[in-house]
C-alpha cells in the first residue's frame, strides 16, 4: 500500500555535513539542537500535511542520533541514557512526533541489552549500529498478545496490534508475544520489510501525527530461536539467570522516562515558540485601566511566563536527576545483573514515576496556558501553536497518570516499591 511520505532527499545535505559523530555529551546535545532547529523550520506545516516521516527519520540517521547509545566498537556514541533523554528532549522541543520516534528507537534498539543475553546484546547492537537501522516496535500490552509457535530452529509470530510506533518507517521491528502452551513472553527483532508485516496505515489522531502509531497485522513472521531475547535456543527455555532477577524489568522505567522527556521537550518547545510570538505579535490589552505600551509590559503576561518557566525548570531538574539515577543502575549492574535487588530497582522506578506525574501535569498546563499569553490570533492554524498541546494530550493518555500518583503515594506513605508490570 502506497501512502504519502516525506522525501529523504530534502535533508540529503546533512549526511555529509554530519559525517562524523560527536564525542562528548555537550557535542551530542549540540547535534540534537541542530536537528531541532532544522525540524522547527516547517514543523507546523509537516504536522498539518501528516505524511509518513521518512525524511525525518533520515535526518535522525544523518545526525547520528540513532546511534547515540550504541557501542563505539560498532560505530556508536556509547553515551549513557542520561544523555539520550536530554537528546530526546531537544528534538521534541521542535517536533514532538520526531522526539517520540527517537525515544522509542533508543528504547527498542537497546532492548537486547536489558532482556537478552550478553551474546544477544552484542550481536543485536552490531546489527543495528553498523547498518544505522531505525527500530520500531509492535508491543502494546493492552492488545491480545501475539501468538508464538516453535517451528524447528525458528519461532513464528501471528496476531494483530492496534498500536505500533514507528513501524512504517523502520528497518527493524521489535515483536513480543507469548509462546503457545505457556505463559512465557518472548521479545525478538525482525526485519520490517517483509510480507508478513502488514501495516494498517490508520494513524490519524489529533496529535503526534508523524509517529506512524497505527495498527499492524503480524502474519507468520519468523525469527530464529537464537534471536529470542533471554532464551536458550538449544533447550528452547527461558534462561534461568533472566527469570529470577530484577534487571530485565528495567525496560519499563526506561521507557516511562522516555515518555516524560518528550513531554517535557514538547512543553519547553511550546514556551519558546509562544515567547517568540508574544514578543513579535501579541498586543497589549487597551481596556484594563492600567494600559501598557507593549504586551511584554503586561503584568499578567510576565507573571504567566515566569510561573511556567519556573515549573518547567523544576521539572527539567527532576528529569535529569531521574535520568542519572537510572543511568547509574545500568552502569553498575550491566555486567552483574543478578546483583540488582527489587528494592533498588523499585526506588529508581519511583523517581521515574515522579517525573511522569510532574511532566504530565506541568506539560498539559503549559501547552494549554500559552494561549493566555499569546492572544486570540495565536489560535490560527497557520501559527501552529496548538500542535504542542495536541501532541502532549495524546500521549499522556498512554497510561493513566492517576495510577502513577497512587503508586508514588504508596511509596511515600507506606514505603512500598511497586511490583514490576508492563507500565511500572
TrEMBL record:
Pfam families: Acyl-CoA_dh_2, Acyl-CoA_dh_N. Keywords: Flavoprotein, Oxidoreductase. Residues 24-125 form the Acyl-CoA dehydrogenase/oxidase N-terminal domain. Residues 257-398 form the Acyl-CoA dehydrogenase C-terminal domain. GO terms for molecular function: 3-methylbutanoyl-CoA dehydrogenase activity; flavin adenine dinucleotide binding. The keyword Flavoprotein applies. The keyword Transport does not apply. GO terms for biological process: L-leucine catabolic process. It comes from the Eukaryota. This is Thermophilic desulfurizing enzyme family protein. The lineage of its organism: Eukaryota, Fungi, Dikarya, Ascomycota, Pezizomycotina.
Amino acid at each position: 500500500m502506497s501512502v504519502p511520505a516525506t522525501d529523504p532527499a530534502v535533508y540529503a545535505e546533512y549526511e555529509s555535513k554530519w559525517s562524523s559523530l560527536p564525542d562528548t555529551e555537550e557535542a551530542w546535545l549540540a547535534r540534537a539542537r541542530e536537528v531541532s532547529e532544522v525540524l522547527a523550520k516547517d514543523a507546523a506545516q509537516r504536522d498539518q500535511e501528516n505524511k509518513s516521516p521518512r525524511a525525518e527519520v533520515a535526518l535522525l540517521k544523518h545526525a547520528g542520533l540513532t546511534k547515540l547509545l550504541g557501542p563505539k566498537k560498532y560505530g556508536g556514541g556509547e553515551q549513557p541514557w542520561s544523555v539520550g533523554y536530554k537528546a530526546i528532549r531537544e528534538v521534541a522541543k521542535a517536533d514532538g512526533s520526531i522526539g517520540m520516534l527517537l525515544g522509542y528507537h533508543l528504547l527498542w534498539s537497546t532492548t537486547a541489552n536489558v532482556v537478552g543475553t550478553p551474546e544477544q546484546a552484542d550481536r543485536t547492537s552490531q546489527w543495528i549500529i553498523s547498518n544505522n537501522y531505525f527500530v520500531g516496535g509492535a508491543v502494546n500490552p493492552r492488545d491480545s498478545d501475539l501468538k508464538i509457535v516453535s517451528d524447528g530452529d525458528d519461532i513464528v509470530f501471528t496476531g494483530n496490534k492496534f498500536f505500533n510506533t514507528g513501524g512504517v518507517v523502520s528497518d527493524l521491528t521489535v515483536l513480543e508475544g507469548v509462546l503457545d502452551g505457556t505463559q512465557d513472553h518472548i521479545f525478538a527483532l525482525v526485519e520490517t520489510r517483509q510480507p508478513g508485516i502488514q501495516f494498517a496505515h490508520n494513524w490519524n489522531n489529533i496529535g503526534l501525527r508523524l509517529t506512524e502509531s497505527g495498527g499492524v497485522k503480524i502474519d507468520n513472521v519468523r525469527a530464529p530461536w537464537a534471536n529470542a531475547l533471554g532464551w536458550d535456543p538449544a533447550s528452547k527455555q527461558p534462561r534461568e539467570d533472566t527469570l529470577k532477577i530484577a534487571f530485565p524489568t528495567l525496560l519499563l522505567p526506561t521507557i516511562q522516562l522516555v515518555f516524560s522527556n518528550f513531554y517535557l521537550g514538547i512543553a519547553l518547545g511550546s514556551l519558546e515558540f509562544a515567547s517568540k510570538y508574544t514578543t513579535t505579535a501579541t498586543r497589549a490589552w487597551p481596556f484594563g485601566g492600567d494600559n501598557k505600551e507593549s504586551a511584554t509590559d503586561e503584568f499578567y503576561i510576565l507573571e504567566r511566563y515566569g510561573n511556567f518557566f519556573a515549573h518547567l525548570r523544576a521539572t527539567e531538574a527532576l528529569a535529569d536527576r531521574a535520568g542519572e539515577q537510572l543511568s547509574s543502575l545500568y552502569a553498575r549492574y550491566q555486567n552483574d545483573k543478578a546483583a540488582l535487588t527489587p528494592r533498588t530497582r523499585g526506588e529508581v522506578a519511583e523517581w521515574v514515576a515522579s517525573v511522569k506525574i510532574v511532566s504530565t501535569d506541568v506539560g498539559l498546563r503549559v501547552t494549554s496556558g500559552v494561549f493566555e499569553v499569546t492572544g486570540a490570533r495565536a489560535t490560527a492554524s497557520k501559527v501552529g501553536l496548538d500542535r504542542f498541546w495536541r501532541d502532549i494530550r495524546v500521549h499522556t493518555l498512554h497510561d493513566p497518570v492517576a495510577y502513577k500518583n497512587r503508586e508514588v503515594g504508596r511509596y511515600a506513605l507506606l514505603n512500598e516499591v511497586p511490583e514490576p508490570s508492563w507500565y511500572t
